[in-house]
Amino acid sequence: MINRADFGMPGKTQLSAALKEIIEDKYGLPPGSVSIRNPDGTNSRSDKKIGNLKTDHEQK
Q1: CB count, 10 Å around CB of 14?
Q2: What does 1-41 look like in DSSP terms, one character per residue?
Q3: Cα dihedral 16, 39, 53, 21 in deg (nearest 10)
């Protein structure tokens, strides 16, 4: 499990940005190449909480 404190990030709203960076680093992708999407395929807000994103996808 990812610990926000490991990244110096106090809030859940910034966790999605950290996840994007982790995925980019792990797979050698260029910065900005990973995006988190809503169920309808549009980009989600950058400050969207992970729980809300999961709920949206479960309701699809």
Answers
A1: 15
A2: ---GGGGT--SGGGHHHHHHHHHHHHHTPPTT----B-TTS
A3: -10
CA distance 6 to 57: 27
Distance CA 8, CA 55 (A): 26
- Tell me what pLDDT residue 1 has: 56
SS3 48: coil
Residue 40: what pLDDT?
A: 94
Q: Mind listing the pLDDT tens digit for each residue in 10-55?
A: 555 566 778 888 999 999 999 989 888 899 999 888 778 888 888 9
